Amino acid sequence: YSCKGAMMDNRFATALVIACVLSLISTIYMAASIGTDFWYEYHTLSPAENVSEAGRTIWEEFVSEEADEKTYIRCNGTVGLWRRCITIPKNPHWYSPPETDMTTNCISFSLSDQFMEKYIEPGNHNSGTDFNRTYLWRLQFLLPFVSLGLMCFGALIGLCACACRSLYPAIATGVLHFLAGLCTLGLVGCYVAGIELLHKKLPLPDDVRGEFGWSFCLACVSAPLQFMAAALFIWAARTNRKEFTLLKAYRVA
User: PANTHER family attached here (predicted)?
Assistant: First the structure.
């Protein structure tokens, strides 16, 4: 029985190690996706001359207090959860090769911007509130922090489990990782829905192409990793508890 118990312990320990590695990777991916600006990318197909001529006007609109979603869908740039960036010529007055004289400028979203109402007609404050886009935007700001918080709390419970030399708290760690995965999945869904609704109201110009960036992909990868870690934590804790109960009942008998 001691060999069998050791075999079971090794099996559970392996599951926990794999779960911890998956949890660490998903946390890194999630933190990287939140902190980078490449959630959605816009690429203009216009000739460099046109980009150069419009660069100064676009930049003035971009940095103004009245800048809206119309500004950054008309030129090269990226949109993240915290910042929006555009790429314009360094010297918009004269034509120069874009590969050597282009610069990227970013503007951060303030906390009030994150909770600002979205309008039925983007840029028109008199068109009324678009509740769908408003709440989708707010959720995509809040959900990643809830996800990271749940995973950090789960890690603390896991450390307590190691200190107590017990697998029972691993169930709570697994449940928290599962909830974190739901939050991450909700974040991805909210972001995609928000982008689709925006482009229905503001169709992209013919010379602009849009696509999801690598920051968005990191969040997409993070969700299944969280679910897999949750499954391993819960499986190891429940199976170990069941085996221990059966072994204890056999010894008593």
Answer: CLAUDIN DOMAIN-CONTAINING PROTEIN 1
The range of the structural domain enclosing residue 216 comes to 1-247
| β-pair partners for 85 | 78, 106
CATH code of the domain covering residue 42 = 1.20.140.150
Residue 253 placed within a domain: no
pLDDT for position 142: 92
- Cα separation, 11 vs 2, in Å, equals 14
**pLDDT of res. 179:** 96
- What whole-number distance in Å separates Cα of residue 51 and Cα of residue 157? 54
Report the residue count for the chain. 253
Distances (CA, A) of 10 to 91, 123, 157, 243, 245: 64, 60, 21, 13, 18
Looking at the DSSP bridge assignments, the partners of residue 83 are 108
Q: Within a domain: residue 252?
A: no
Partnered with residue 109 across adjacent β-strands are none
Identify the weakest region by mean pLDDT among 44-53, 153-162, 167-176, 228-237.
44-53
CA separation for the pair 115, 165 (Å, rounded): 44
Tokens 């940095």 sit on residue? 63
Per residue in 105-146, pLDDT tens? 778 887 877 888 887 777 667 777 888 888 998 899 899 999
User: Rounded to whole angstroms, how far apart are CA atoms 54 and 60?
Assistant: 10
CA 17 to chain centre: 25
Domain count across the chain = 1
Token pair belonging to 115: 């909770």
Provide the H-helix boundaries in the chain.
Answer: 2-35, 48-63, 98-101, 111-114, 131-164, 170-201, 214-252
